[in-house]
């Protein structure tokens, strides 16, 4: 079961990173298509934005020709790293000796990754409040809440792993 | 740690090499080295028994308590 979770997370990471890379490359190309009036496959140039069609998945991603694309790229980059860390998180549990410093580092990294969305939501909320715009952040708050729950669970796992590592060290030094 | 391991002294007195002792009592030389250097966290009674048997000594000859 643990191995299956690891394999699935590995497959998911590779699929997700491939799609993200495809979108990133074609969103750059779509800008060239817009500026120089070029024909690029999988790209549909509209007035203020373009659409990148991801083959096989039938996804149509809106690519704006503004700085807001950086937010989109950052989100894609964040989730690519996130799923890489998730893959490594499952790897910890299939290892023969899970109470290692490397495992602790992997879990700490995954914990930190789950805390990043809080910074994002604070900046997002403050910027909207300062501008006085109306916004409905329910979806974003839900995602941040989900990340916080995961972070809490990882924190508990981390504590168990720390204690396990201590016991393991004592056991290794018992002659 | 206030517990001192005097295994080196006993080995020198008996003129026995660490490698030979490790082979006799059935532990690795690396583990014997940990024990001699005082890095070990605990010693099993079975290991202590084997050392005492091999070196013909008492546990007190190997382990010593020294106030910090």
Automatic annotation (TrEMBL), chain B:
<feature type="domain" description="HTH cro/C1-type">
    <location>
        <begin position="13"/>
        <end position="62"/>
    </location>
</feature>
<dbReference type="GO" id="GO:0003677">
    <property type="term" value="F:DNA binding"/>
</dbReference>
<dbReference type="Pfam" id="PF13443">
    <property type="entry name" value="HTH_26"/>
</dbReference>
<dbReference type="InterPro" id="IPR001387">
    <property type="entry name" value="Cro/C1-type_HTH"/>
</dbReference>
<protein>
    <submittedName>
        <fullName>Transcriptional regulator</fullName>
    </submittedName>
</protein>
<dbReference type="InterPro" id="IPR010982">
    <property type="entry name" value="Lambda_DNA-bd_dom_sf"/>
</dbReference>
């Amino acid at each position: 079961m643990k191995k299956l979770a690891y394999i699935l997370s590995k497959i998911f990471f590779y699929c997700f990173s491939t799609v993200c890379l495809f979108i990133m490359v074609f969103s750059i190309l779509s800008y060239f298509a817009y500026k120089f009036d070029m024909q690029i496959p999988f790209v549909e140039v509209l007035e203020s934005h373009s659409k990148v069609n991801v083959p096989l998945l039938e996804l149509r991603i809106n690519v704006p020709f503004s700085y807001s694309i950086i937010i989109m790229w950052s989100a894609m980059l964040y989730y690519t790293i996130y799923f890489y860390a998730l893959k490594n998180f499952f790897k910890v549990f299939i290892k023969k000796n899970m109470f290692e410093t490397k495992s602790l580092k992997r879990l700490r990294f995954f914990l930190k990754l789950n805390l990043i969305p809080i910074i994002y939501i604070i900046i997002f909320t403050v910027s909207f409040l300062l501008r006085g715009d109306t916004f409905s952040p329910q979806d974003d708050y839900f995602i941040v809440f989900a990340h916080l729950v995961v972070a809490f669970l990882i924190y508990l796992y981390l504590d168990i792993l720390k204690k396990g590592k201590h016991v393991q060290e004592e056991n290794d030094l018992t002659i | 740690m206030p517990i001192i391991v005097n295994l080196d002294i006993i080995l020198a007195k008996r003129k026995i090499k660490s490698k030979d002792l490790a082979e006799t009592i059935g532990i690795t030389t690396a583990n014997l080295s940990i024990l001699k250097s005082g890095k070990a966290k605990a010693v099993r009674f079975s290991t202590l028994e084997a050392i005492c048997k091999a070196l013909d000594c008492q546990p007190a000859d190997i382990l010593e308590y020294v106030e910090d």
